[in-house]
Design brief:
CATH architecture of the largest domain: 6 Propeller
Helix content: under 10%
CATH class of the largest domain: Mainly Beta
Mean pLDDT: 96
Shape: globular
Distance between the termini: 66 Å
Length: 384
């Protein structure tokens, strides 16, 4: 006999859904198959247990009612089956933004980002990416793939909602958009938890087929830990904690890697720093062990430095510095192993820089009105 444990029959679901059934009286069992609307989903070999699970990315299915079927097989015949119906109801960014939110544009921006005139011969003036990426909500923490075709970013619909409430809104988290022939696709949520298990994700970095991301969830060593997910062809899965050394002793925060993955830069308020938050560097040896973090003293001050981006070859380090409480973007060059004095690139509420392989600059700009953050957009400065 087969009994469904999860999800509950008749329930509403979205995102990544854990399917779980229990099988009893199954001595001849060879495998359990799961399907959705008669479309095969997974086949799980028999084992010495009652419970069998599979993951269903409900976000890839249209909203509405769907039938989940589990079948127990033997070499001779089917041993039994059980079906339930659930309703997919995927929350959207558009429906989550407050109805009274007004989209700020460069024409109405009171404090627009400013490119340092010393670099006007290198980059165009920054402009927002526009729709469908930017909305009247907050687009934050942008990371661009080296080829410039895939954009990851954090979204939350309302700046005034605290993180403990964002956990339950169904839309706050990491999103992914693809660029084809110069046009960005409608961003889609990157699900890095299973339905019903509350967590909050952000602070992400792409390294090949792995996505490093920060998360508030069960299983953490601290309040916010870094986790690692693997690319599975059309979605991220198999997320695991980055470990006690990095999340505990090293206390890593937002981070980035060189192209070979052997050098990590991260921000942290760990002991031994020069300011409220500093940028640190650590190196991975051939056995996979990370060296003791070193403070990059050339870029750190008594203020806040963080949100680092390092070029794949390790020759440039970009970061955010708080200058009298205002985030601005700096860059430092590595010359013969020595970090040079940082140069101001973009000022006025600009931060979290990232570059593609053509050195086009992406960053976050927060819109300020009456000394209050209203929203945030992803900005782009093309390399000339």
């Amino acid at each position: 006999a087969i009994t469904w444990h999860s999800p509950a029959a008749g329930s509403e679901v979205y995102g990544m859904v854990r399917l779980e059934v229990a099988v009893s009286d199954a001595d001849a069992l060879t495998d359990i198959t799961f399907s959705v609307d008669d479309v095969p989903l997974a086949s799980i070999p028999a084992a010495d247990r009652e419970g069998y699970t599979a993951e269903w990315l409900a976000a890839n299915w249209p909203d509405g009612e769907h039938t989940l079927l589990a079948v127990a097989h033997s070499d001779a015949d089917d041993l039994g089956q059980a079906a339930i119906t659930v309703t997919v109801n995927t929350p959207t960014r558009a429906n989550s933004i407050p109805a009274d939110a007004v989209k700020i544009t460069p024409a109405t921006d009171q404090i627009p980002p400013l490119l340092n005139p010393a670099f006007a011969n290198i980059w165009e003036n920054p402009v927002p990416l526009g729709a469908p990426v930017n909305t009247a909500g907050l687009e934050d923490s942008a990371f661009i793939s080296p080829d410039g075709s895939t954009l990851y970013f954090f979204f939350t619909p309302d700046y005034d909602v605290p993180p403990d409430q964002q956990l339950f809104d169904g839309v706050t988290g990491i999103y992914r958009a693809e660029r084809t022939n110069g046009t960005w696709s409608e961003p889609e949520r990157v699900y890095l938890n299973t339905f019903g298990q509350e967590s909050l994700e952000g602070a992400h970095t792409l390294l090949g087929d792995r996505l490093w991301f920060g998360s508030i969830r069960q299983g953490n060593y601290g309040e916010i830990d870094m986790w690692i997910a693997e690319w599975q062809g059309d979605h991220w899965a198999n997320w695991t904690n980055a470990g006690e050394l990095l999340n505990g002793e090293y206390d890593i925060g937002e981070l980035d890697f060189t192209g070979d993955g052997r050098t990590m830069v991260f921000d942290s308020s760990r002991a031994g720093g020069l300011g409220q938050k500093d940028i640190w560097i650590t190196y991975q040896d051939p056995d996979g062990a990370w060296s003791a973090p070193e403070n990059i003293a050339a870029v750190n001050t008594s203020e806040i430095e963080g949100w680092p981006y390092i070029t794949p070859d390790g020759s440039e380090l970009w970061f955010t510095r708080y200058d009298q409480g205002v985030p601005v973007i700096y860059r430092t060059l590595n010359v013969n192993g020595v970090w040079q004095p940082p140069e101001l690139i973009v000022s006025q509420f600009a931060g979290e820089p990232a570059l593609d392989s053509a050195s086009n600059l992406y960053f976050i700009h927060h819109y300020i009105q009456n000394s209050t953050v209203i929203e945030a957009d992803i900005y782009f400065a093309a390399r000339k």
